[in-house]
């Protein structure tokens, strides 16, 4: 980490928790304010939803041409648990490409890593598949909402025809329940209130409290995000 910005910020939580809304807020914040208030430089995103959707599109193309689907069945259930971790590996690959192209990448840039996990596909498991180049530079924000709030917001954000959109994709209720009704976040908090240790790396974390909902109001997003990022900055020093 250099003297002014986080190199890598992992943002995770349940679907529709508010992750994409926080990132959208940061996009609309001036570079100067974003750096001063949140210690986030100009940034690029690595969001595994893009890989999820790409897998569905590839499987549909294969089906239309009489070939077997690789990643998902006809109702878009994943065939193999490992597929979730494959997407995390892809994030690591894309990140290493950035460093290879520009070893001084983080002198001016922050990388935001976004993913949602739950059920048998735990947050900690996902972190164990993160590359060490990410783990050694990362801080983490968990956007906290209950499952019921996640479900409500998942319904609200659905936009027909925009199923591939970062802001407007949603999941059927049966997939929400199967994949995300439970997660391992509370267990991680109980183990250590400040750090998550993964492969020998201690990742500082803090929770963005989004219930009652703050992510509809830019002023509330900014206030809560500043609290969270200030906490993380002190821990990172």
Description:
This protein has helices at 19-27, 31-38, 49-64, 82-101, 123-128, 132-135, 147-157, 173-180, 185-191, 218-236; strands at residues 8-13, 42-47, 109-116, 138-144, 195-198, 201-209. It has 237 residues and is an alpha/beta fold. It has one domain (8-49, 108-236): Rossmann fold, CATH 3.40.50. The protein has a 6-stranded mixed beta sheet, sandwiched between helices. Strand 5 and strand 6 (201-209) form a beta hairpin. It is globular, with a radius of gyration of 18 Å.
Quick synopsis:
With 237 residues, the chain is an alpha/beta fold.
Principal-axes shape call? globular
Strand runs, count: 6
* Main sheet: strands, sense, barrel: 6 strands, mixed
Instruction: Kindly report the CATH topology.
Output: Rossmann fold
Radius of gyration: 18 Å
Strand numbers in spatial order across the main sheet: 2-3-1-4-6-5
Distance between the termini: 9 Å
Structurally, the number of domains stands at: 1
Give the overall average pLDDT: 92
The residue fraction in helices comes out at 40-55%
Please tally the helical runs, counting DSSP H or I stretches of 4 or more residues: 10
